[in-house]
Every structure is written in C-alpha cells, then in structure tokens.
Amino acid sequence: IPVDPFDLVIFGGTGDLARRKILPGLFRRFCAGQMPREARIIGAARTELDASGYRDVVAEAIGEFIGHHDYTKDQLTDFLSHLDYVPIDALGETGWKELQELMAGSPHIEAYYFSVGPRLFGDLAERLQRWGMADSECRIVVEKPFGRDLATARELNQTLATYFNEDQIYRIDHYLGKETVQNLMAVRFGNMLFEPLWNAQYVDHIQITVAETVGVGGRAEYYDKAGAMRDMVQNHLMQLLCLIAMEPPARFDPDAVRDEKLKVIRALDPVKPHHLVRGQYGAEPGNEEEMPDYRTAVDNPRSRTESFVALKTHISNWRWASTPFYLRTGKRMAARSSEITVVFKDTPHSIFAEDAGRHRNVLSIQLQPNEGITLGVTIKEPGPGGMRLIDVPLDMTFAEALGEEGAEQVDAYERLIMDVIRGNQTLFMRGDEVEAAWAWTDPIISGWEARNDVPKPYDSGSEGPTDATELMRRDSREWRKVS
Ligand code: NAD
C-alpha cells in the first residue's frame, strides 16, 4: 500500500549514509510500490551539483548497494525522475531560498532528514524555521549520535524543541527498525506462552551481544572521542534491553511503548566498577599489517578509548529484581553477531538419570547477520539409545510457513523512513528516553575518566578480553559464543 504523497529533503544527501542506506532504501520501497507517484526526494548538501548530477550520484549508489538483477532500468529511470537537488550550506545562507521555493505551496507531507554531523542539527532547525519551512505539520529525522552525554543531549533536545514539537522529531536508532525487533514484541505480547515465564522466577539471566568484525574504519576521528559505551551501549544495546524487559504496554502505540521503555531505563541499577569490563583491540596475530591494533587505526598511540564493553546490571523492579542482565559489544571480534538471549532456569527437579543430559530452555533473538528467533527445547534423542535428552531449536522465523512474500527482507532504514511518512513514532526514541539513557551511562564513563582507566587488550578476531569471560564465570555462567 503506498504511503501518502511526501516531499523528503535529505540534508547530507551526498554523504555516506544517504548513499549506502537512505537512497537505496527509498528505491527499494519505490520498486515495492510503496512510494506514490507524486513523491519528491530532494538532496541538499554542500556539494555543487545540479539535479541531473545528483541523479548520477544516486544511480551510482544504487548500482553499488543493490544487486543489478533486483531492478530494471526503467524502474531506476522512473525513480530518478522523483529526485531533485539543492546545493546548500547549513551554516550559511546559500541554497535556502532555492529550497524554500521548491517546498512552497506543496500539499504533501514534508520531512527533513538530518543526515549530517550532529553539530549542524541546531543550525538546520533554526534555518528551517527562519525560512518558513518548520510548520507544525512537518517532520524532522535526526541521526545518531544524539549528544555525547546528558548535558549535550539535553541541550540538543532543548534546541530542537525551540522549533519543533516532540511529535515532529524522529530520533533514529536503526536497531529498532529491524524486522526481528518487532517480531520480538509480537512473540512476547501475542502469545500466552511466554509472558507468564518472563520474569525473575523463571529466567536465569538475559544476555545481549552486539559483536562486530570491523574495526573503526573511516570513523577513526569520531570513534576515538566516543568509544563503545557512547557509540553502541547508550543507544542500541539499551534500546534492545528496554524491549526485552519492558512491561506490556496497554496499546501498541508510540507513547504507550515509549513510556514502558523509559520505566526500564529509570529502574536500571548503577553499574558497579567490578561488573564492568573495558577492552581495546590489538592487532590480529600474524596479520598485523591488514588488521592493525586500535591505536594504530586511530593514529593515537596513547588512546584509552574502549572498543569493547561488557557489563552486568540489574533492573530494580518486581519483575526482574534478581535477574542479571549482561551486555557486551565490541569491534574486531570473532564474528559479526547481534543477539539477545533469554536463558531460562533449570527445571526444579530432574526425573531422568544423571547421564541423560540436562538442558535449559534458551530463547535466542538474532538480529545480525541473519534475523530470526529460535527457542531451544529439550526432547528425547530419537532412536533406541534409551532416555537421552537433547536440545533442539524451534524456529520462530516462519520464513517457510509464510513463503517468499512473507519473508520479504525490508532493511531497517526503509521501514523507519516509511514510518516517518506515516507519522508513526513507535520505533523512534523519545527525548526523555535518550536523556535517561545518558543519565545511566554518564557515571560509568566519568568513573573511567576519574580512575584514568586503561582498557584491557584483546586480540582482533577473538571473543574480547578474558576479563569479560571472567565476569560471567564468576557467576557460573557463560557468554554465548560469538563465532
Ligand atoms: P558524510 O561525511 O559521509 O556526509 C556528510 C554530508 O553532509 C555530505 O552530504 C555533506 O555535503 C553534508 N554537509 C557537510 N557539511 C555541510 C554543511 N555545512 N551544509 C550542508 N551540508 C553539509 O557523513 P555520513 O557518514 O553520511 O553521516 C551523516 C550522519 O549520519 C552523521 O550524523 C553520522 O553520525 C550519522 N550516521 C552515519 C552512519 C553511517 O553509516 N555513515 C551510521 C549511523 C549514523
């Protein structure tokens, strides 16, 4: 079903994110018939280009990031005809009159995507208003990072609030746009089976891992000032934690869901120093040239920035009081894997012989590299070998049951952009959520700074520092293997 006609202005429309994610995503929605004929996409960036030059840039990006067999030439030509471009300076006056003229009198939904560095967010907002484009109907989309601590996030929220209402501001966390994240909510709140067991009485612990194989890549300058806590934990991991731990909202609507998420963050215990592990990757043994250590990659021989964090925390409420939550994220790890794992407790008593084997139910929600939900259940090993118990995964992804159409892979960005046009904020972070998340992470970071903490080294291609393994082992538990 097509969304309503829209004009989407992409500030930073020539940048890496726009070329890799936003424009290919819009093109896929166009091919799927979701973009109406009247829709316009207007690139606005510093680069000097005209509309035809911009179409070339976008055509090249689509060629690079979408397989050629996935679309026809006609589809591409048709899509490109929706594109326009304005060279603009977020910090100056160039281009604003032209943009205003393009937008004037348009009856469409207006959305402005801030795909530029965060230091430009305030300037863009102010100029949109000054040029009469910030009316109460339009929407703005802001990218991460949203601040670097509570003070800067608050300041940014206040700046945006000067020009826009909260219901116009769409703060992106693309983890929330993943199919499986929504499937997690369907599984939790659409079944009688799980919710009664979803608490400290039945759940032994929950672990959330976001492991990457890549290093800092081209983001060295930004990353060395941020680190894994700011870049990954404060946003992505905490969002996943909220969705797995929140109370059932009364309705599946934006504020009902976000109210419940906020309560989780506010109930989080401060993290004790001995429940925290920071790491920094070293070179890959035997491959130092291609996979150099972190400090070489960021060209800062004394850097104390972490590329890995593992921590244990608790949520102080009735549901979760005694259930530990373990969070872990790192770069240059053994494999690319994002997973939430709910490990249920042992059965209270085993009626089988000791050597029959004993397994815990494990619900595993994978977000990367493949999306899917599986539940490990214990059954009898088939065959004549007597009563031996094995663990088999029940696949809840339903790709087979739904057929090809049901299993259509929609990238997180595509879904989120369409949600912006539909005016649905459920999968976007509210300002108070972001601030609460910073309020929890700030003391962790300032604690490290006060102690002059040196991150523990770990080899590229490994499971992270041994201290992270130890954090679990002390509690007689184990991380799920990344590789
Ligand atoms: P980029 O450096 O590749 O692109 C920046 C864009 O902003 C360019 O189009 C440039 O022309 C434009 N720009 C810069 N200064 C400008 C000015 N004064 N006026 C108008 N336009 C200006 O950056 P990117 O990687 O595309 O990232 C954009 C935003 O998205 C950043 O906030 C970044 O943190 C965020 N982000 C990026 C990624 C990613 O994968 N690239 C992922 C998550 C979040």
CATH homologous superfamily label of the largest domain: Dihydrodipicolinate Reductase, domain 2
The structural class is alpha/beta
CATH architecture assignment of the largest domain? 2-Layer Sandwich
Q: Within the largest sheet, what's the order of strands?
A: 14-13-12-11-7-10-9-8-15
Based on Cα principal axes, name the global outline.
globular
State the major sheet.
Answer: 9 strands, mixed
Name of the top-level CATH class of the largest domain: Alpha Beta
How helical, in percent, are the residues? Answer: 25-40%
Strand content: 15-25%
Would you count the extended β strands for me?
15
The end-to-end span amounts to 40 Å
Tally the structural domains.
2
Low-confidence stretches at least 5 residues in length (pLDDT < 50)?
none
* Overall pLDDT metric: 95
Q: Count the helices. How many? A: 15
Region (Disordered): 451-483
InterPro entries: G6P_DH, G6P_DH_AS, G6P_DH_C, G6P_DH_NAD-bd, NAD(P)-bd_dom_sf
Family: Belongs to the glucose-6-phosphate dehydrogenase family.
Pathway: Carbohydrate degradation; pentose phosphate pathway; D-ribulose 5-phosphate from D-glucose 6-phosphate (oxidative stage): step 1/3
